[in-house]
Design a protein that fits this description.
about 350 residues; Rossmann fold; 3 domains; five-stranded mixed beta sheet; four-stranded parallel beta sheet; globular
Length: about 350
C-alpha cells in the first residue's frame, strides 16, 4: 500500500475493496470521490483494474456524502458502486454500493492539546468526522491530559460511529448537549462545526489537524444567523413558493415536501414541488419568479449557499417561523435530517 500516492495522507482499505469486487463477481465498477480525494481517482481506478480485472469507471460529478451515491451507477451498467471518503448512513439503504473511509494519518495530539487551552469549562463534547473517527481514543487521551472530561455521544440511526457528525445530522453532539460546557470539533474546514454551532450557543472550538490550527466559528455563526433572519423576513411576504425536493437517496423527503405544501396553502399562498438531483443556481433559474424557495434537501444548501441564489431560500422550520408557528427568540431550529426512517424515503 505504501506505493500508492495517497499513502502519506490517508489510509484507504484497498484490500477490502479488491475482495468485495472479487466476491461479487463485479465486471464493471463505478468509483466515486469527494473533492478532497478526486486527485487520487486515476491511481485508485488503475489499482482496482489491475488487482481485480474489473472494468473501472470514475464518476465525474460532485459527491457530497454517503447521502449522494452516484445516480450514474445504473446508467453506465455498473455492478458495484464504490464511494470513497464517507462512512455509510445506517438508515439509508443503497443497493450494490460499498463505502470506504479515508482515514487521515495526520497527528491529532498536539492540536487537540492546544485547543484544550481555549475550551471553557471542564466537560467537553467531542465531535469529529469519518476521517478522524479512528483517532477518537487519541483525542480523548489528549483532552484528559489537559485536565478536561471528554463526553462522547452516540448519534441516531443516521450516524455510523461515536462522536461522528454529518452536515445534516448532529445527534451525537445533541446527545451530550445538556452535560457539556463546550464542544471540540476535530477536523478540517468550517462545514461540520458550523452546523453544530447553529444547533447550540455553547462555545465550540475547532482543532484542525490539516492546517494545524485552532479557531472558533463564532463570527461565522453570527453572520449565518443574520442571513437566516433576513431570509425568514422575506418569506413572510412571499405569495408563491417552490418546494425543492432532492432525489438523492439520503436527502429525498417527499413526505415533508407534501406537508410543507399543505402548510403553505393553508396560509393562503401558492406552492409548487420541484424535484432535482442536485440544486444549483442554473438549475433553479426557471423558478425565480416564485417569491421564496423551501429547501427539503440537504439543509446546508439554504444556510451555506445563501449568497448564490437570487431568491430567498428557507428550510421547513424557518418557514414555520415565517408563518408565526415558531419564534426566533425561542432559539434557532436547524433542519436536521435524522435517523428516523419517516424523515426520509428511498426514491422510487
Amino acid at each position: 500500500m505504501d506505493a500508492f500516492p495517497w499513502a502519506d495522507t490517508y489510509e484507504l482499505d484497498m484490500p477490502s475493496v479488491f475482495a468485495a469486487i472479487r466476491s461479487r463477481g463485479a465486471r464493471r465498477v463505478l468509483l466515486q470521490f469527494p473533492d478532497g480525494l478526486r486527485d487520487y481517482s486515476a491511481a485508485v481506478a488503475a489499482a482496482v483494474a489491475r488487482e481485480t480485472g474489473a472494468e473501472t469507471l470514475v464518476a465525474g460529478g460532485a459527491c457530497y456524502g454517503a447521502c449522494d451515491p452516484s445516480p450514474e451507477t445504473a446508467a453506465v451498467g455498473a455492478d458495484l458502486l464504490v464511494q470513497f471518503g464517507h462512512s455509510p448512513i445506517p438508515s439509508v439503504t443503497v443497493k450494490d454500493a460499498l463505502f470506504v473511509r479515508a482515514k487521515s494519518k495526520l497527528p491529532v495530539d498536539g492540536v487537540v492539546r492546544r485547543a484544550a487551552a481555549d475550551l471553557p469549562g471542564r466537560r467537553v463534547g467531542v465531535l469529529t468526522t469519518a476521517q478522524y473517527a479512528h483517532r477518537l481514543e487519541e483525542i480523548l487521551a489528549a483532552l484528559r491530559a489537559a485536565g478536561k472530561e471528554p463526553l462522547v455521544g452516540r448519534g441516531d440511526l443516521r450516524i455510523a460511529m461515536p462522536a461522528q457528525v454529518l452536515g445534516c445530522n448532529y445527534s451525537a453532539g445533541k446527545a451530550v448537549l445538556a452535560q457539556a460546557d463546550c464542544f471540540l470539533y476535530v477536523g478540517s474546514g468550517d462545514f461540520h462545526p458550523l452546523g453544530m454551532a447553529l444547533e447550540t450557543d455553547k462555545p465550540l472550538v475547532v482543532a484542525d489537524p490539516e492546517n494545524d490550527t485552532v479557531r472558533t466559528v463564532a463570527g461565522l455563526r453570527e453572520r449565518i444567523l443574520r442571513q437566516r433572519h433576513a431570509a425568514i423576513a422575506r418569506a413572510k411576504d412571499a405569495r408563491s413558493f417552490a418546494i425543492l425536493v432532492s432525489t438523492k437517496p439520503g436527502q429525498f423527503r417527499m413526505r415533508l415536501a407534501l406537508e410543507t405544501k399543505a402548510l403553505i396553502e393553508k396560509h393562503g399562498r401558492a406552492a409548487t414541488i420541484v424535484t432535482l438531483d442536485t440544486f444549483t443556481p442554473d438549475s433553479l433559474q426557471y423558478w425565480r419568479k416564485e417569491g421564496c424557495w423551501v429547501n427539503t434537501a440537504c439543509p446546508r444548501i439554504a444556510t451555506d449557499d445563501f449568497s448564490k441564489y437570487q431568491v430567498p431560500m428557507v428550510t421547513p422550520p424557518e418557514l414555520e417561523m415565517a408563518f408565526g408557528l415558531r419564534r426566533w427568540d425561542e432559539g434557532y431550529v436547524f433542519d436536521a435530517i435524522d435517523g428516523d426512517p419517516t424523515q426520509h424515503e428511498t426514491p422510487p
